[in-house]
Design brief:
Order of helices and strands: HEHHHEEEHEHEHEHHHHHHHEHEHHH
Keywords: Aromatic hydrocarbons catabolism, Hydrolase, Signal
Distance between the termini: 40 Å
Structural class: alpha/beta
Bound molecules: 2-acetamido-2-deoxy-beta-D-glucopyranose
Active site: 208 (nucleophile), 334 (proton donor), 389 (proton acceptor)
Pfam families: EHN
Strand content: 5-15%
Number of helices: 18
Signal peptide: 1-18
Family: Belongs to the peptidase S33 family.
Length: 419
């Protein structure tokens, strides 16, 4: 038995003995998986939610202090009395065919990487494989509203086979046990997953952390990643842009983005820095308090898609997908992302790929087209008048339509895929 195979076996045993409250078996090739969370864990979580002690807010609420206490009390009450995990679990299992496998290391990360993923093939012979990567605080839930449109389109529109993995530490992909597995390595593992599934050329879509992941993939696997579609493009203004801004010589679009980034730094950067500095310290309370965890996630969801009407059911279900295995791994991904050698700082320009941007105009992700062109071969660029950061959830129809237009006979992306 090879050493690597042995370590995979050991890991499979570890994954079970690590005491996750869900049934999972990570073998060396794709095997079917259904979400099956221990009912006693679900009941214990409900009881914890019902006993949550809510912080006392100021009489005059200050938004930047955190979400209003009354909203968190509403989450607590709903969780204690109305929330039904069984329905969410059944809906996800019925709608999303899921699998597990193990990848034998990626890039500089030499340990086995157990992965959970959604895979649904289109019945169309001409369907194009599409790797969909979720973000934070997301999970495979993000693919739920677009998977039908991708796999089962009208007969004259482009069809896709969809593969949507859980990033390590999110949903049912166990968090790494060693440092060094960041988004770049996750992308390398996802490429190996695509090869396990027999897809040696494919297109990618991602938003939020998923957009960074698929960009790494386009850089690292230019032969296989034939086109990239995204609703977020990380691109900070350069010195000339800032000089222009300070000299009031920016376009309205440039000034908009620079102002949004400045607001982001004031309101959200603290959250990021907790993850980058002391994610474990943060995780002790978050692992033990479902309502506290939901309060954190609520802020992310509301901040990203403020005009979307997030229901209590949605907030709790998105929380559960991180809370069930524990939110440490998902938070710690940001620490890897801040690493100088393989984090955001290592994103380089790629020119051989076809990139598309689909940016809802009100979202943080709005970007002037010529700035975007500095880092990629943009062949398709759209601004939408509505929608938010979680595009596959708040604007699923527009997202699917945009992807179909981006890659259809006659487009540059189509030609890049077919060749
Ligand atoms: C709190 O609840 C109110 C009333 O439902 C809602 O309008 C507001 O957006 C919520 N705020 C947050 C941060 O969730
Ligand atoms: C959910 O399903 C489990 C196992 O089937 C069951 O024990 C539990 O009572 C169910 N909970 C609810 C709220 O229906
Ligand atoms: C491994 O790390 C080195 C040094 O940081 C880097 O140059 C190299 O690209 C990495 N390899 C992969 C496959 O990520
Ligand atoms: C497919 O057909 C619909 C309805 O006739 C039409 O609106 C749409 O533009 C067509 N799509 C393509 C790619 O030709
Ligand atoms: C104004 O911005 C343009 C575009 O970046 C630049 O070429 C030009 O030098 C700037 N003019 C001044 C006065 O800064």
């Amino acid at each position: 038995m090879s050493k690597r195979f042995l370590s995979v076996l050991l890991f499979a045993t570890l994954a079970v003995s690590a005491n996750f409250p869900f049934k999972a078996n990570f073998g060396t090739s794709p095997a079917p998986f259904s979400i099956d969370v221990d009912p006693s864990f679900i009941e214990e979580t409900r009881v914890k939610a019902s006993l949550a002690r809510i912080a006392t807010d100021l009489v005059q609420h200050v938004p930047q202090d955190g979400p209003p206490a009354e909203n968190i009390t509403a989450i607590k009450d709903y969780w204690a009395n109305n929330y039904n995990w069984n329905e969410t679990q059944k809906r996800l299992n019925d709608h999303l065919p899921q699998f597990t496998t193990t990848i034998d290391g990626a890039g500089n990360y030499s340990h086995p990487i157990p992965l959970h993923f959604v895979h649904r093939q289109s019945s169309r012979k001409d369907a194009i494989p599409l790797l969909f990567v979720h973000g934070y605080p997301g999970s495979i839930i993000e693919v739920e509203r677009v998977i039908d449109g991708f796999t089962n389109p009208p007969s004259n529109e482009t069809a896709f086979h969809v593969v949507a993995p859980s990033l390590p530490g999110f949903g049912f992909s166990p968090a790494p046990e060693y440092p060094g597995l960041g988004l770049r390595e996750s992308g390398q593992a996802f490429h190996k997953l695509m090869l396990q599934l027999g897809y040696n050329k494919y297109i990618v879509h991602g938003g939020d952390l998923g957009s960074h992941t698929v960009r790494y993939m386009a850089i690292d696997q230019p032969e296989s990643v034939r086109a990239l579609h995204t609703n977020l493009w990380y691109q900070v203004p350069n010195q000339q842009d800032m000089d222009n801004f300070n000299a009031k010589n920016s376009t309205a679009e440039e000034a908009f983005l620079i102002n949004v980034l400045a607001t982001f730094r004031l309101t959200f950067l603290g959250q990021r820095q907790v993850f980058e500095n002391e994610p474990l310290q943060w995780a002790y309370a978050q692992t033990d308090s479902p309502v506290g965890c939901a309060a954190w996630i609520l802020t992310e969801l509301k901040g990203g898609s403020p005009s979307y009407d997030w229901t209590l059911d949605e907030i709790i279900s998105w929380t559960m997908l991180l809370y069930i295995q524990g939110p440490f791994g998902s938070a710690r991904m940001y620490k890897e992302l801040s690493d100088k050698t393989h984090g955001l700082a290592s994103l380089t320009t790629f020119t051989s790929q076809w990139a598309s941007l689909n940016l809802p105009s009100k979202a943080l992700s709005r970007l002037p087209e010529d700035w975007a062109r500095r880092q990629g071969n943009i062949v398709w660029f759209n601004h939408y008048s509505s929608g938010g950061h979680f595009a596959s959830w708040d604007s699923p129809t527009e997202l699917v339509a945009d992807a179909r237009e981006f890659i259809k006979p006659g487009t540059a992306a189509w030609d890049a895929y077919q060749k």
